[in-house]
Write a structure and sequence with these properties.
This protein is of the alpha/beta class. It contains 5 helices and 8 strands; from the N terminus they run E-E-E-H-E-E-H-E-H-H-H-E-E. The strands form 3 sheets. A 3-stranded mixed β-sheet has the order 4-1-6, with helices on one face. A 3-stranded mixed β-sheet has the order 3-2-5, covered by helices on one side. Strand 7 and strand 8 form a beta hairpin. The longest helix is centred in the middle third of the chain and has 18 residues.
Length: 194
């Protein structure tokens, strides 16, 4: 897995109706705390930076899975909300991602900061035959299943880094699901136990 330790991240999305550009400052103290917590939990983790030899001056590129949620969750604030970006590793087992999520939650809790965890991921990307991946009915089947699990607050059945971070005591509130193009998007919020 990887955690960004550069001073900032930036990204540009083009090709749609408008150009969307975003630059966010990285909370390097929290990023290092996340890295150490994951190391302590025996999760393979590396701190990554891009560009400048001095990590504090470096700017790591944002992919769309980082840029889109950050855009809507404080990235356009003045000043922008500081971020920490952790990338999972698809070659590691699911239970390792759950352990990583617990380590992230531990680091966030110990920081004393107000932290929001955003889990952004790829799912069904074959909803439109004109899309880059063609059409597969499996995309709808998969997306419908995840929507159903979130609606019934069964995050443990998804087993992901998010589940490791919030456990099973949080309450899921399903907000929306849309497939306006070749990929599906769902949004839910999770409330901690009282």
């Amino acid at each position: 897995m990887a955690v960004v330790v550069s001073g900032a991240m930036s990204g540009v999305l083009e090709g749609g109706a408008t150009r969307v550009e975003l630059r966010s400052i990285v909370d390097r103290d929290l990023a290092r705390a996340v890295r150490h917590a994951m190391e302590d939990a025996a999760v393979p983790i590396v701190g990554v930076s891009y560009g400048a030899n001095d990590a504090a001056a470096a700017v790591t590129p944002m992919d769309w899975a980082t840029q889109i949620p950050i855009h809507f969750m404080g990235g356009r604030s003045d000043p922008p909300v500081p971020i920490v970006m952790v990338a999972p590793a698809r070659d590691l087992p699911w239970d390792m991602h759950v352990v990583a999520g617990r380590a992230i939650a531990q680091a966030a809790s110990k920081s004393g900061k107000r932290v929001a965890l955003i889990a952004s991921c790829d799912h069904g990307h074959a909803h439109d035959p004109k899309g880059p991946y063609g059409f597969s009915p499996a995309s709808k089947v998969f997306d419908d299943r995840v929507v159903e699990l979130v609606k019934r607050n069964a995050l443990g059945e998804i087993l992901s880094m998010l589940h490791g971070a919030i456990g099973s005591a949080w309450r899921a509130d399903f907000l929306s699901y849309e497939a306006p193009t070749y990929f599906g998007m769902r949004c839910a919020s999770f409330t901690p136990p009282d």
